[in-house]
Every structure is written in C-alpha cells, then in structure tokens.
Write the structure tokens for this entry.
Amino acid sequence: MEKTTVFREMKDIPEQFTISPVKQQEYLIDGEIFYWKGEFIEVVSPVCLKEGDAVKPAVIGRYPSLTAEESLKALEAACRAFDSGTGKWPMMGVQERIGCVKDFANLMKEQREEIVNLLMWEIGKNLPDSRKEFDRTVEYIIATIDALKNLDRASSRFEMDGGIIAQIRRAPLGVVLCMGPFNYPLNETFTTLIPALIMGNTVVIKPAKHGVLLLRPLLKAFQTCFPRGVVNTIYGEGKTIIGPLMESGKVDVLAFIGSKRVSNILEKQHPMPNRLTTVLGLNAKNPGIILEDADLDVTVSECIRGSLSFNGQRCTALKILFVQEKIADEFAKRFSDGVSSLKGGLPWDEDVKITPLPEEGKTGHMLSYIEDAIANGAKVINEGGGVVDETFITPAVVYPVNAKMKLYNEEQFGPVVPIVPFKDLSEPIKYIENSCYGQQVSLFGKNPAELARLIDQLVNQVCRVNINCQCQRGPDSFPFTGRKDSAEGTLSVTDALKVFSIRTLVAAKESDLNKRIINEIVKERKSGFLSTDFIL
Ligand code: G3H
C-alpha cells in the first residue's frame, strides 16, 4: 500500500508557487555587490518533493559561505561609514535619513511576491502568514518613520533648568550587528535593522540559518537607497564569520533574535563588554493558565492559535497549558478535537495550518519529547497526533503532563502541546517563578477578583499578561520584551528607536555669551544637532 504523504511532485505544485533554484552569489559590502566564487551552502527546503516512490527534501538554491576575511571587510566598511560618528549617514539630517528609508520601503514593496514565495519555500510558513509577515514589515517601516518624526519634534526645543540651557536629542550608537531568527526572517530582522539604520547607525546583517535567500531581492534596494557601507550583508557559518566580528571589539550593538545559548557565546567573545549594547529576543516558555470558570469556546480557540500558529515555532507561542483539574479532561478533549481539525499540507495549500518544519532533525526531536512524556505516564490524546512524514509531523496534544517530563520545562518550539492539570493555582505560579524565562502568560477565566490577584502577581514575573487571549508580540506599537533569559531591551516601534540610540545633550550656562553663540548656531543653521528645525 502506498504511504500517505503531504508531499507532491513538482508538477503538482500550482504554477505561481513553483520555484527554480536560487543560486545566490551576491553579497553587499561597502556599497558594492560582489559575486562569490568560493564555497556555497545548499538551501534545503522543509518542503519535500515526490520523485517516483521516493520523497526528498527539495534543494532550492545556495548562498555564499563567506570566510572571516569578507566578514571583517563588511565590518570595516560599516566602521568607515560610521567613522566615529562623522560619516555621511550619522551626520545626515533626520529628514534626509527618513527619505532614504522611505525610498527603500517603496522598492521593497515591488519584491513582495518573490519574497513571500521564498518565505514559503525556505521556512514553510503558510501563504497568509507569509503575506502577513511581509505586509507587517512594510507597515513597521512606515510606523517607524512616523515615530521618529514625533521623537525629533519633541527634541527640537531647548530646555532650561538650574541656570543651564540644553538641547537633548538621541544620537546613534555606532556599528550594529543585526541577526534575525529563522521563524520571522524578514520581520524580526527588520524590526531591529530599520530602527538601527534610521537612528544613524551602520549595519552588518547576518541572516538566520533558514530564510537567507529571501533577503536577496532586497540587496539592490539596500545598495541604491543608502550611502556606501551603511548596510552590509554577510552569509555563512556563524562560527566562521561572526566570531571574528565580535572578537574585534568593533561591534557597538548586538541585535540578535535567537537562542540564549548563541547570544551568550557572542557576548562573551566581545573584548569590551561595557562598549557593547545588546538588544536580544531569546527563548520563552509562555504558559496558558486555564481557570475552572473559563469560557471554553474562547479558550480552546485562543489556545490552539497560541500554541500551533506556524507549527508552534513562535517565541511567543503558548508552550505549556495549565488547566484547573475540574475542567482538565473536558478542556483536553475539546482542545484535541480542535487540533485534529487543523489541516496539514504545503504552505500554499488552501486553509493549511500545519506545514513542514525547516530545522534539520526537528521531527525526530519532537518525537523524542513525545516518547519521554509517554514513558512518564502521558498519552497523545488527539487521533493521528505525532505522526512523522519526513519533515512534517502532525501536531500532538500530550496529556496529562507532569514535572518529570522534558516537555514541562524545555522550550519545544514545535507542534507538540503539553497539557498539565493542576489542583492548586500555586503550581502554575511557582512554575513561572522558577522558570528561567519571563516573556508572557495567558490567563483564561471570568472572575475579576481572581484574575486581578493573578495579574498583580504575574506582572512582576513576565512582561505581558494576556487575558482570555493567546500570547503575542503585536500590535507593534506595544512594548515587546521579557525578563530573565527571555530578552534584553524593548522593541515596540518607539522603544526600538530608543534602544538603538543614546540620549545626548549640548548644555551651556545661561550667560549672554552662550545665548549669543547658541542663537547664532541655530539661526544660521550651523549645526545638525543644535537646531530647532521642526519636521512636518
Ligand atoms: O517569534 C517571536 C515573534 O516575535 C512572535 O511574534 O507573536 O506576532 O507571532 P508574534
């Protein structure tokens, strides 16, 4: 009997979503696009293709495996472009910098279709979510421009206090190494890249392991819209190309979204830790706490979206569900029925929710969580849950989970959902207190007094308490951060402008001479910093 599979032959993939291998040779350093002739890294899609009886992961392209030499050239270019703060870009007026970013956003929009298709093939994100990732990123750029205008307007006046007259603005920090994650390779890279750039920093971008090719259609736009050396791109093995950058001590800001393991290595490599600013989005294990009076319709649908959107591969995903014992069986049944109805397939299939996973060995890793939980007394309660087909695994609802199981503490970052029944609320509270993570929590219930008590306890443990709603980053105007090992720095549209800059002021005693000097500088527009120009 033929084995059932979600995978197909290339000829059965709708024409608009087919792909021809992308052989990327280009990398951008110092305003020049170079063509690499050395080693390459093959890009293997999570989407497999059927060839006769065989099913094999599709090879969809390759990208340069640069060496430390090119990587250091990129860093030198960024350093030259910053030039201790005297480079063209950091000295440029805010209005002009905004113009460059606007031009970039316009050119970026032209690449939507190609980037969306690459998102699907490189990381397996479904079509609506891939489109959303692209559109949300463009909206983020526009919102960043508006936020900067507001910030600049507020600092275009002088302040006087204690006989001192001062103008306080935000100045760039220097050279930013920008490394995004594979699960939001466009959006989360840009939520650090754009604020870093617009504040006058210069940047070296290293894309995540998966989701590299999708930045290629933007290289020309980077080259056209920004002065040379302001944006540089490097590709290859992290160990080879990132270690030397950090060890050089010339990186001023590390903007990294990924694992705490890697961020710890990178931070330690920097010889001058006080010079290094870190903006980090790291691991999380956000719990859902479901109280006995919760509205189960709302709770089940929020928990399904919260735990399984993009196959659970979101840092904000609900990664463990604590359910009050009295309703635990009923919740588990309704939740697993809902999960069983999620359609699995390829990213462009209509209504598909569960798709293949891009990380090597990930389905096996998910199975090992399931086996460990079963060995410790749990079951997979949804029919057909946890069945592997190459890079695809059907989501598994594991119940009842306890503290002996790996799924209880480890961040699974995939489509396996542990449900833990609890007697006393102290269990989930203690869990959060003892966790090394502190991003968000979701509370489901109806009793205002009980919820209020929990809110007051938990706001000092995590950075967002969601009521009757899944955990999430958006809207992007809201602060996004975490405590403990989950994050460093806050990344809303306005907060991001702040983390990539530093408050700097020019101050003088209120003497006649100083007033005359300041007046003349301002009136004759002699300084970019000391200025009352108001952006409209
Ligand atoms: O991977 C973490 C993302 O920042 C989560 O964003 O909540 O909008 O999916 P999201």
Remarks:
- The CA atoms of residues 333 and 366 lie 21 Å apart.
- The two ends are 69 Å apart (CA to CA).
